[in-house]
Amino acid sequence: MPTELGRSQIEDQRCPLSSDVGEELGEESWQELGEELAKTEVEVEVDADMVEEKLEEEAEEEAEEEEEEEEEKS
Questions:
Q1: DSSP SS3 for 65
Q2: Domain tally for the chain?
Q3: Is residue 51 one of the residues assigned to a domain?
Q4: What's the longest Cα–Cα distance across the chain?
Q5: Averaged pLDDT for residues 34-62
Q6: 68 in a domain, yes or no?
Q7: In angstroms, how far is CA 19 from the centroid of its own chain?
Q8: Over the stretch 6-18, which tens digit does the pLDDT of each residue have?
Q9: What is the CA radius of gyration of the chain?
Q10: What secondary structure, in 3-state letters, does 42-61 show?
Q11: What Cα–Cα distance (Å) separates residue 12 from each residue in 9, 19, 24, 39, 73?
């Protein structure tokens, strides 16, 4: 929402948590939540071209470092 100066105004909304949330929820509930999260499957899509490009960049950097080390030894 624009303000009088034309800048957008961001509204910060937060839900405060008390420091004793763990006590309110109870140890067993936290344990159950952790077990459920451990069972949750996560799907990840990876762009094969991007991975290959990154691996090539790393190999080139490694080769350059090795060349510099060899030059320093000479």
A1: helix
A2: 1
A3: yes
A4: 67
A5: 88
A6: yes
A7: 25
A8: 555 556 556 555 5
A9: 26
A10: CCCCCCHHHHHHHHHHHHHH
A11: 10, 21, 26, 33, 57
Q: Does residue 33 form part of some domain?
A: no
For residue 60, the enclosing domain spans 47-74
Assess if residue 32 is contained within a domain.
no
**pLDDT tens digit string along 21-37?**
555 667 778 888 888 88
Q: What is the pLDDT of residue 36?
A: 86
Whether 61 contacts 67, CB under 8 Å: no
The number of C-alpha atoms within 13 Å of 48 and in the hemisphere containing its C-beta is 0
Look at the pTM and tell me if it is higher than 0.70: no
**Residue 44 tokens, joined:** 């990840």
Q: At 1, is the pLDDT very low, low, confident or very high (cuts 50, 70, 90)? A: very low
Residue 21 corresponds to which amino acid?
V
